[in-house]
Known about the structure:
Elements: H1 2-35, E1 37-44, E2 52-56, E3 61-66, E4 72-79, E5 84-89, E6 92-97, E7 103-106, E8 111-113, H2 116-140, H3 144-163, H4 171-178, H5 184-190, H6 204-215, E9 226-229, E10 234-236, E11 246-252, H7 257-273, E12 278-284, H8 289-298, E13 304-307, H9 315-320, E14 327-331, E15 337-340, H10 346-355
Parallel strand pairs: 1-7, 11-12, 12-13
Antiparallel strand pairs: 1-4, 2-3, 2-5, 5-6, 7-8, 9-10, 9-13, 11-14, 14-15
Amino acid sequence: MPHVKANNEQTTLKKMKKTLLYSLFALLFATAHAQQVNLQIEGFAPAEMKMLYLTDLLQQQPVDSVIPVNGRFQFSRTTEPNQFFCVGMEGLSFIIISDGTPVSINFNKGTLTGSPLNEKLHTYDLRTSALDMAMQYAFMAQDKVKLDSLRRAWHSVMWEAVEDNPDNVIPAYYINELVFACDYEEIKEMLSPDKAYYDHPLTRPALTMLHDHELKMPGKPFIDMEMSDSFGRQRKLSEWCGQGKYVLLHFWDSQYEPCLRDMRRVSYCYREFHNKGLEFVGISLDTNKQQWLQAINANHMSWTQLSDLKGQQSIAVETWGIHNLPSNVLIAPDGKIVASNLFNGDLEDQLEDIFGE
Length: 357
């Protein structure tokens, strides 16, 4: 009998574990299901729109498509909340946030109604889209003054979208574009963890940009790395940095026109300040050795040049957070960072303050 009792207890225990496991699975399923929302979009489309696409902006690929019938269309699917989608076709589309509220779109009139959050996003999108089109015309007309003015207005609308919406995810749509026009403190403020959009998947590139800024903060010690020079020898930055002289790290790419335009300014700084004690180290994100060497010779770059010829996969990208070119970092004699990304005369001013005119 004791043996039978033990078996009964084991059976009961197994049933209890099984019931608990089923309950746990049911809870997880219910939780996952509760986190999803219904994305419902209906509306009107002109006859020339033969096919409409629903594109996931995070994945950058269509997840659904419909053929309008008698000028009407509808999308309906279950998705994660606060995802961004593009509805329409190339050249004519609307941006939608999946917030669980049905949305109505009229491509004929260019209107969006239904969800207050999406209506708000649409007002920003209309303004930025109009400015974007105007910038394209100014670019084609080579009207630099107008283009700069329009670009400032464009950024201003994005700033408004970010500043006025700390409690929702609208800023996630604009922030990756806006960070390129911001300094470190502005990016840090935009990406404060208390913002509702902080951990949205679309903000990851902006968070990477913030991290890249922090790698080059003034006062931080330089980060050593090893690469081949233009003669094929392995060199380390520590051969120059922290050795008692100021060092300018110049990041560039021989196939990128802005870098070639910037080379005149860099060459001027080399001629003016090298003999006064400033060391130069060029770090290229090239992939073709021959093109890299030709550019060095063509631009009379007599200072040290390094590259691992891996382009955006270069160790420089990860080590120094270099994603925009040209770029530069000024290192003090003790190996600590003085400043980075000095442009529009800032580099010349900084060097004149250090070495004198």
